Amino acid sequence: MLAALHGWLAPLPPEGASAIVFRDTAHAPELSAAQGVRSVDLQASGIVDTVVPEHPDAADEPVEFSTRLSAAIAVELHALRGIPDPDRVATRLRRYRNIGSVGSAALPRDT
Question: Which of 28, 43, 95, 106 is the most exposed place for a label (fewest CB within 10 A)?
C-alpha cells in the first residue's frame, strides 16, 4: 500500500469531522492527527507500507511526484513478484484481518 505524504484515509474528511465536533474547520489538523488518518499514521499502524514524498505538495510538482510514485510502484511490484502466490495471499489476508486491531502491525495471525 502506497500513500502520498499529504494523503489521508478516513470515511469523513478531517474538515467535516471538525465541523461536526467544533462547528468550524479550524480544528481539522488536530482531529486528523488524533484520528490517525494521515499517511504517516497509517504507515505507523501497518496499513501503509511506503509514503511517497511530496515537495512541498504533489500539485506543485506533478511530473516529479509522478516519477517518484512510479518508481515506488515499480519497487513494490518487483518485490511482490518474488513472493509465491499462496504466501502473498496469506500475508494480505492476515494484514486486512488485523486492520483496526490495537497494535495491528505487531499482531500477526495465522491463516
Answer: 106
Backbone dihedral angles phi then psi of residue 93, each to the nearest 5 degrees: -65, -40
Coil/strand/helix, residue 53: coil
The amino acid present at 59, given as its one-letter code, is A
How many helices (H) and strands (E) would you count in the chain? 5, 2
Cβ–Cβ under 8 Å, residues 99 and 110: no
**C-alpha grid cell, residue 10:** 478516513
**pLDDT tens, position by position, 73-88:** 999 999 999 999 999 9
Main-chain phi, psi angles of 102, to 5 degrees: -65, 125
C-alpha cell at 5: 505524504
> At residue 53, what are phi and psi to the nearest 5 degrees?
-60, 150
Between vectors from CA 56 to CA 1 and to CA 39, what angle results, nearest 5°?
Answer: 25
ω into residue 56 within 30 of 0, thus cis?
Answer: yes
Q: Which three cell numbers stand for residue 75?
A: 519497487
pTM more than 0.85 = no
